[in-house]
Amino acid sequence: MAQIIETGKKEIERVPAKVFIEYRNCSCGGRMLYEESFGTLAIWPPQFTHKCNICGKVESYMDKYPKTVIEEDTYDPLKPVLD
Ligand SMILES: [Zn+2]
Fold first, then answer.
1. In angstroms, what is the span from residue 44 Cα to ligand 1's centroid?
2. Which end of the chain is more exposed for a tag (fewer CB within 10 A), N or C?
3. Comparing C-alpha atoms, which of 37, 32, 16 is closest to residue 64?
């Protein structure tokens, strides 16, 4: 969490981030992949249908996998970030 440490700080600030791709693994060792053609179950919260790329098992999750995860990286707020 960035702290405001000086006056006149930019209203919009860019900070370093780490990007991950999160896969959901099947118990067989395969990966559960979102299948656009299966669509979304019409319930709340929405469920996205996935199929294992090895055994073909079908399951629904509240998120689409693979999923992009972005986390703020640790950084020194006293050092300017180039943007
Ligand atoms: Zn599988």
1. 26
2. N
3. 32
pLDDT tens across 17-73, in order? 999 999 999 999 999 999 887 766 677 887 889 999 999 999 999 999 999 999 998
**How far is the centre of ligand 1, averaged over its atoms, from the C-alpha of 27 (Å)?**
6
- The first and second tokens of residue 41, run together, are 């179950």
Q: CA 30, CA 52: separation in Å to the nearest integer?
A: 6
Residue 15 Cα to ligand 1 midpoint, Å, equals 38
